[in-house]
Amino acid sequence: MSERFFLYDDTVETKTRFVSFMGENQRFDLAIIQSDRYYGKHIVLDIQSNRFAIIGEDDLKEPGYLEYAYKLKEEDAEELRDFLYEII
After folding, report:
1. Confidence of residue 6 (pLDDT cuts 50, 70, 90)
2. How many other CB atoms are found less than 10 A from the CB of residue 48?
3. pLDDT reported for residue 22
């Protein structure tokens, strides 16, 4: 076996918020992780769908971004977007 080559191997302090809320059509169970990485963006994990994305305010403004990242219908993505605007 060859020697492992790491691109990086860092340990950083993070702040994680767990949020669960019910939309019109589905429940969202989220883990929102903040750290000093990713240029101030947050890692948003949807625990129900096993999907995640690195999200900043610019991503929330991008048409279709949440729909694609979380495989959501437009209406459900809008509910998630409204919530994320409050915290990001």
Report:
1. very high
2. 13
3. 96
Q: How far apart are the C-alpha atoms of 73 and 24, rounded to whole Å?
A: 12
Q: What is the mean pLDDT of residues 56-82?
A: 97
Residue 69 phi/psi, 5-degree rounding, is -65, -40
Instruction: Show Cβ contacts of residue 86 under 8 Å, excluding neighbours closer than 6 positions.
Output: none
Name residues whose C-beta falls within 8 Å of residue 44's C-beta, 6 or more positions apart in sequence: 30, 31, 32, 33, 52, 53, 54, 55, 84
Q: Which of 48, 15, 56 is nearest to 32 (CA)?
A: 15
Q: Where are the beta strands (DSSP E) in 23-80?
A: 27-34, 42-46, 51-55
